[in-house]
Amino acid sequence: MSMYDRILQIISEVIGHMQDGDTLTGMQLKEFENRGFTVAEISTALSWIAERIELSVTEKTEHALRSEFSHRILNETERALFSSDAWGRLLHFREIGLLRAEHVELLIERAIMMNIGSIDNSTLTMLVVSLLFQDDDSKHSLHRMLLKGDEQIQ
To answer: First CA to last CA across the chain, in angstroms?
Structure first.
C-alpha cells in the first residue's frame, strides 16, 4: 500500500467516525500508529481534514448544497474506464464527502484527457490525490503538508 493509499485510508476512517458523531481522541490516533501508520501520514490526513472543515464552514454555497445529493451516471466510454473496485471506491469517497460532485467530474475528465486506458485502485488513488492535495482552494501543496520522518505537529 502506497503512502497516498494510507493517507486516504486515514482520511476515510476519520471522516466516517465524524459522520457517526464520534469525537477523535488521542487514544484513537494512537491506534493508527499501532496499526502501522506513520506520524507523518496521520498528521497529513488530519491537516487535510482540518483545512476542509475550515473551508466548508466559510464556503457553503447554494450550488454546493444542490450538488451534494446529485449522482453521476456514466456513459459507455466512462464506464469502460473504471474497474468495478475503483468505481466502488470512488463512490465511497463521494458518499463520505471526501470528494464533491465537481471532483468526480474533474477526475473523469482528467482520465479521459490523459488517455488512461483503465482505472484501477492505484490509478484512482493517484487521481484522487492529485485533486485533493493540489486543489486551488488548498493553502498547502502535498509537498508542504507532508512531514519528514522525524518531525511532529505539536
So the answer is: 27
